[in-house]
Every structure is written in C-alpha cells, then in structure tokens.
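Supplementary material to the annual report.
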Amino acid sequence: MELPYWLTILREFAVGEKEHTAIPPLDGPLAPNNRLEEFASVGVFHEINDVACSASNEVFVSAGNSVVRCWGEGYRDRAVVAEFSGSAGPLAFLDGERLLVCVSGVGVVEVSSKAQNKVLIGEVLGAPLRCATALAVGPGGALYVTEGSINCSADDWVWSLMKRDRSGRLIRYDLSARRGEVVREGMPFPNGLCPSADNASLLITQAWDHSVNRYHLEGPRRGEFEAVRKNLVGYPAGISVAPEGGYWLSVFALRTQLVEFLLTQRAFRDEMMRTVDPLYWIRPALRTLNSGLEPLQGGAIKKLGRAKPWAPPRSYGLVVKLNQSGELLESFHSRADGVRHGIVSARQFGDDLFVCCKGNHELLRYRVKSDGGI
Amino acid sequence: MAAEVTAATVDAARWPKTWVAPRTRGRWKELRWRASAQLVLGELLEKQWMEPAIPLAVLIAVTASFVIAVPGMGEFDNVISTLRELSEFALVVIGMGIVVISGGIDLSVGSMFALNNYVALLLGLIVGLPMWLTTLLVLGLGCLMGACNGVLVAYLKAKPFLATMVALLVYRGITNLLDEHFSMSIATKGTIQDPFWTWLGTGSVLGVPTAIVFLIVVVLVGHVMLSRSRLGWHITAVGASRKAARHAGIDVERVLLSSYVFSGLLTAMAAMLYASRVNSLSPYTALGMEFTALTAAVLGGISLAGGNGTVPRALIGAATITILSKGLLLMNVGGEIYTLIQAMILLLVVGVDIKWAKNRAKAIQKIYINPTYLHFEPAPSIAPNDNSPFAINDRLSNSMPIGLGVVEGPEDVLLDAQGRLYTGDRRGWIWRFSGENFDRAEIFAKIGGMPLGMQWDKNGNLIICIGGMGLYGVDPLGRVTKLTDETNRTWYRLKDDSRLRLADDLDIAPDGKIYFSEASVRFEAHDWIEDGLEGRRNGRLICYDPATKTTRTVLKRLVFPNGVAVSHDGNSVLIGQTWLCRILRYWIAGPKKGEVEVFVENLPGYVDNINRASDGNYWVALVGIRSPVFDLAYAHPRFRRRMMKRIPRDEWLYPSMNYGCIIKITEKGEVLESYWDPTGNAHATVTSMREHDGFLYIGGLNNNRVGRIKLAGGGRP
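Predicted assembly:
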C-alpha cells in the first residue's frame, strides 16, 4: 500500500526509517570498471533473454520469440529450434535433456526435438501464467517457477515497477501429478531463481525491493523465506550457481535517485503512464535509446563533447559475483558511456561464463580462471 | 544539398510518436501558480536588512505585551519619559555596539558614565563654568578616557576584556575619590541654573524632547558612518577578521583606537543627558551598566564574535531592555526578579537568533525556487521519415571542426569581413581563428565571466553579452570596454534587479541601439537550470543606447528570453524564449511600434540564438529538444519543487540538452527546414549558428569545437 507523500514524511519524522533504503554507492567490490566491455562476444541475438547448456555442450539461447541452438567452433553454427507467439525467456534443462522455456504471455513450454512444443504450465490455480521470470528444477524433481506479476506479461515489467505492483508468486509444479501450487505470493517481482549449491534451499531475487532471498526446502527452517542480501544498487535479474562456489547475479539496471523519487510521486507517475509512450518514461531501461525524447538527468549532459561515465545511468551493465552467504565479491561493469547494458542472465558452464546482454542484443563469454579465481 | 538520411545514423525506431494520450490545459492553474507568496517571502528573507528580524520581533512583542498588560504604560507622559531614558541608554549601547563590532568589548562604559556625570556636575557647581563649556569639556574627557582604553587595546595589545575591566575599576575609583573630596562642599551648593542645562535636560526642539533629538541624530549619523563610510567598513572588517583586515592594508590599530574613542564619546554624551535631567551627584551612578549595555547589544543582534552589527540593531536591543525595565518597574517587580527575567529573555533570544543566523541561508535556499505551472501542446513530430520540416537528418554530423579541443564552450560565433572567426569560451576569453582552415588560434581578448551573444557595431567593434557581468565592447585591437552593467530598477520588486546577471544575446538596430536579453534576474548564469525548472517570467529585454550611454528595460516579465535578432526590415526584434519554445516579435518602429506578438510557438525544442539568414529568412538554434516527460513536469510544479529539494542537482530531470538542431524560419514564422546531429557526437548542444559566405558556423555552450557546414548556395548576410 502506497502512502501519500506527506504521510511518509510524518512517519519518517515520528518513527524514523526502519531500514536503510538509500541507494548504496558503487564502492568496495562494486567499484566501477569496464570489464564487461572487454568480454568476448559470441554473437548478436536480438532481444536475448537467457542461455542454457545441454549435456552435449550445445548452447541454447532464448532471444526474441525463438530459441536458438548454437554449436561448433566459437558457437558459430546456429539453428532456430523453436518459435513462439511471445518472447522466449528463461531456459532450464530437465534431466539434462528436456529443454524448458518460459514464454511471455504463454507459460512454461517444453521444446521437443520434433518441433512439437508442448505447453507444460499454462496456468496455475486457474490464473494464466503470463509473466514467468525464472524456472529451476529443485530437489525431488519438482519444478519451481517465479512469476513476476500476475497483472502483466514479462515484456511489460516496467509497468509493474511504476504501478508499485507486488503480485509476484513463487510456484512449485509437480511434474508427475501435473499440478501446480503457489508457495508464496505478494512478492515484488521475483526475477531470478536457482537452487543453492547444496540443494537445501532456493535463491530468489526480487527486483522491486532489490533483494536476494533464500527459501528453505529442507532442514529445521523448511518453508521459511529470508532475505540474504537487501538494498542492492540495482534491480536484480537472473541468479545462477557458480561451479566453484558462490553465485552469479545479473543486475539489469541501476537504481537512480530520480526513479526512486518518482516512485513516491503518484500523481505525476499516473499521468506519465497515461499520456507518455513507455519508451520515454522516467524509468530504468535495458538500453539507452540515445534519443532526445528520453528524459535527461543533469549529470548526463554531454560536456565538451563527451558523456560522463559516472552520469546517472538510465541503463547500465552489471554482473556481480556473490559468495555462498550472499556477500559481494567482485563485479563487472559497463558504465553510463558504455553499451553492454541490461544484463538479464549470467550462467557459468565449465570455465565459461555466458552473459546475456539484452541491452546490446549480445551473448558475451568470459573465461573464468580454472582455479576458481577471477 | 543536404546529405541523404542514412539508416546507420538515424534509427527510425528511436523517434516514434511520443504522446499516447492528449492532455488538458489548466488555465486557472496557470493564474493561480503565477502569484506566489513563497516567492515574495524568499526574496524578502534574502534582504540583508532582514537579519535582525528576530530581535525586532522580540521588541514588538515585548512592547505590545507591556502596553496591553501594564496600565499606564501607553500613556503619553510615560512614553516620553521612557524615550528620554532610552536616549541615554541607547547612546551607551551604540558605543558598546561599535566596540563589539570591531571585535572588542568595553566594560568601562558604566564607570565612564559615572565619572563623566560627576565631573560635569562638579564643574558646574564648584568651578561655576558655563554649562555649554562644561559639556564640551566632558565630551573631551569622554574621548580621552575612550582613547586610554583604545591605546591599551590597540597599541599595548592588552586583551579588551582585561584592559577595560581595569579601566572600569580605575574610573570608578577616581569617581569615589572625587566624591570623598567634594561631597561635603557640594552638599552646601544649590542646583545648577543654566538655560543650556535646562534645555538639555528637560527642554525640547520643535516639541520633541532634546534627548530624543540627540538620539535620532546619533542613530542617523552613526548608521551612515558604520554602513557607508570608509571608517565604518574598516571597523566591520577588523571585527570580522583582524588578520584579513591587516592584509588588506587597513591600519588596524587606528581603527581599534577610534572605535573605543567612539564608545567614550557616546558614553559622555549619554552622561550629559543624564546629568542634566537628574542632576544627581552620586558615585554609584550607572552601577552595572556595562552588563546591561552588553545585554542590549547582543539582544539587538550584534554578534559578540565581531564584524556583524549595525546601529539600528543596537537601538532595537536598547529599546527592548528599556521597555522591559520600565514595564517591570510599573508592575512593581523587584530588582532581583527583573534581572532574572532580563537574563532569561536574553538567553531565549540569543538562542533563537543563533539558530536563525545559522539557518537563514538554508531556509532561503529551501523556499527560493518556486516552480510554476506551464502547459505544452504535444510537440511537432521530429521522426526522421516524417514529412515534417523538423524531421531528423544528419546534416550536422559531418561538420568540419574548428578549434577542436582548443575552445571550451563556444556559445556564439561571429565572423568579420576578412573571414576570421570569433567565439567566446567558458573561461571568459574571446578566441580568434584565422587562416585557410581556421587553424591559427589566438586569444583576441580576455574579459572574464561567461561570454555569450556577439555582434558587430557600425565601427567594427565587437559587442558582446557577458553572463554574470553585462554588456561589453571590444575594439579591433582587442581593448575591452564596459558598455553597461545595470539598468533601471523595478520599483516594486524586493529583489534588486538593477544589476545585469545574465545578459544573453544581443542585436543592433539600424539606429544603433543595442537590444539585448537578460535571461533571468533571479538566478546567476551557472544556475540556469534553476530558472528552467522554475519556469517563471524572470527575464527581460533591455536596450542600450550608445549615443546617450543610457540603459533602459523595454520588456519585463519574459520567460527566459535568449536569442535576439533585429528583423530584416529593421522594424522589429525577434526574441527567443527558451523554456516556452516560442519566439516573440517586438516592434521597435513602424505602425505597430511598442507592440509584442507571438512570432512562432510550440517548437519541438528550446530556442537559443536567432540570426538573420542571407535569403531573407532566420536561423534559429534549438539548444535541446523537448522530451515528453519534461513537458509533463512543467504541468506539475509541486513535482519539480520536491525533486529539487529531495535529490541532488545532477540527478534532476533536465530539459533534454544532448540533442539540438538548427532550423530556418521565414519572415512569416513558417519553419522551412532543420539541421541535426542525431549522434550527438559533433554537436550535442547547439546554442548558436552564423551564416557567412555560403557556410554555416555552429556554436555550442558545452561543446569542444565550432562546426562548419557548406550551405546550398548561401551568401553573406
């Protein structure tokens, strides 16, 4: 429930801020660098969303409305294996061979080799699954799916942010019984999901409250949901396990003070949403259009012909390495003057870290050192 | 011809329709937001004379409450007697105030007062001198005693507190000695019968009691001395920082000495008024007066740290204390309680005043900017494939760079008859580029400020608007002269608008008069964004007449007037209004002389400089283009205000200044064509252009170059 502005001020005055919500600085492990710009490019995939690796070391990429299989030297051989009516989102392999893909507006679809795709989960408890944002196979063969919002499709995520929508769900799907159940609801856009290394819990990112959370599947705290990392600098997207320990967290955009401020201004936001094309809203974006019609922030004015890398970013590229307990270890950036923005997924297969840069329609590859260091 | 639009540089998908729904205009809102009490308050608090607001409020409160609560307080006789007492006390407080302002303290005023009083009556009664002579002698004695203090403090470097404390004891001791010697012989004398003495004590000038006349004269002279004279400024400077004053060449010792002499003189004056009124020979006169006077000075808002205070403030403090004591006396409150109440009020006022002094600037900052409501119709399409004159193209992308990396922020460009190029620079320099490819760069003049619009006058002098300074002229040899930096002040405005803050662009009419715009009278040149977010009618059009050397404001209350161009026929002036995205036409000759009309409006970008083109049309630079969200923000003044308060400036929503263009407009206000750099690499901000010999030269406030493109068959304007 969104309080009127003057009430929030009163509350702040009376009880103080309960927790730190100011945007943390890019400092320590998050100190800016240009390492994302130095990653090798695997190729251009329009509106790339996710990447998965099969048991036979073939890479599958969901991009736009299709899923592309890549193989061979430098993954230069490519073939479209499936096409859908909505955009193809997160990918996962079931039992190492059945490829599942979240399709915006459709649900979770199983891609079969004979090009006969089967909708595996189209609805949960009677409600259509339009905004599946991540899926993972949990212990015991259950399938876990996060649904960003029950009110919009996956492509309309910015609508969900601006409406301060908190209708995301965590869904468990029993493959043998072909039945889904809602584990948790009312979540602020759950946007990434992966089982922990010991398979005892799930890690779930929530975009609109900038957090990484743990959902316990086993042990004495079974069924509990707790925050591992709160108040991140940006909006998290996918999370995945790093084989040598820890997790890869992709952050699809940085929070800016202007957007945080806008989220407290309901009247202006409502009129903006009603009258202005979403491309030109004050909002986080996956890519900057370099159009004068986009709102401009003071620090982003070009001085002496140059854009400042530290300007308030409308879009940004960031991949963060977390350790087992969720502390930040290292980060890879593409700054305001860079192009590799809007990282939606980062997954490591063997020694290769694949990064899906949706902002620049690119799949990136980075060789992680064999000793596990970066 | 213009280059073909290429797919590589212009991506159609980036520039689609921007408004998805119509918006309604709030006309009554416009009017309601135009008037702003907060704006008046902000400008009021900014005035220097608002510093003693708290002491003045306390004085008024104390007076009002006593007049209401104490019967007889407001009666005529009581008012007159209170004023007489006030006169004596206020003179002492002013003397004390001057010493405090100079960074010292004078604890000896009470005993000086007593000694002066005693000596005056002694000379009158025992020696029998005429009282006018006595008065002069005593005033001299006062100066002498003050000078003793001054010498101790200034030349012998004694601490003021210690030196004047010793003086306190010495003068009081002398008074006691005199009393021991003369008390018996005086007791047998009668009273002083002297017309001057009677006039001084109980007489009046034109019905006004003499003492009050003295006070008025002293306050006026003292105020002018302290705030307008060299010595007054020196006293304040020494009090603010003795070291800095010495470095500035001020004779600190002499200034200190003179401040103590003033204190002695004013105390003697007060003693004379007292002596003539009361005629009381007592060594115990004015016991503890130094502390009451100090209290009054601090109460009036004179800083004990020195360097901050005025004579009226001393008067306010003295009046508060006098009325307080008089009122409590009438209420039959005992002396001990009176002291207690005085102390408590002092504590309260000083506490509040310190907070006020500390936070005044912050309070002003919080309320100074007052965004207003502005409505914009959806902008015309700039989509590249549209059949619109604004359709984006890449005609500026491949301009030839001039002075790349040499100039920093060339707002305007100008060429002379020899084809040499002149441009300003954010460092306050004027560059001249010559040679075949403009590769010879030299600094033509160093003026300072922010060089903006430029034009040639008939004699080949460069006339230039300097943001933050005014209107300047540079002769062909590079010698700089100031033409004007002030205009007539608007009599009803609190804010002093006589100085030029942001002279922006100029043009010269056929009769030689220079018309130039001042973008904002409320904000400095580097705070242009605050004016932009405010969106108020803060600017004006000013005319400087070189023949008579006079400056007059011709149009007031314009929203950010920027570009100025005299029309081809010389009968009107075009004025570009940046935030309103429109151009006005102001008639300076012909049948419509004096009238203002809208020339063109609802442009897709923010208007900057305007120039005449060689083909009878006009060039207009659009410094940035309108983003739909910023247009919307103009209709939400509260949103803008909160944004400015809550997030830092670099995070504010700005007008979209990274993509500008140049358009060509006919004499009738029709837009013919536009020139763009959609990459923003060569010309991100476009603030000016100048046509010369078939080329168009492009300037930009934030740019690192001047650009040049070849025009399709243009000539010299």
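The mean pLDDT of chain A is 90.
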